[in-house]
Amino acid sequence: MIAEDLRFRIAGAADAPAVAQLHAASWRSAYRGVLRDDYLDGALASERAALWHARLVNGADAPLEVLLMEDRRGLLGFGCLCPDADPAWGPLIDNLHVQPALRGEGLGRRLMMALCDRMAANATTTGFHLWVLEANLAARAFYRRLGGCEQTPEYHEMPDGERYPCLRVSWASRPI
Question: Disulfide check for 89: which of 52, 100, 129, 150 has CB 3.0–4.6 Å away?
Answer without folding.
Answer: 129
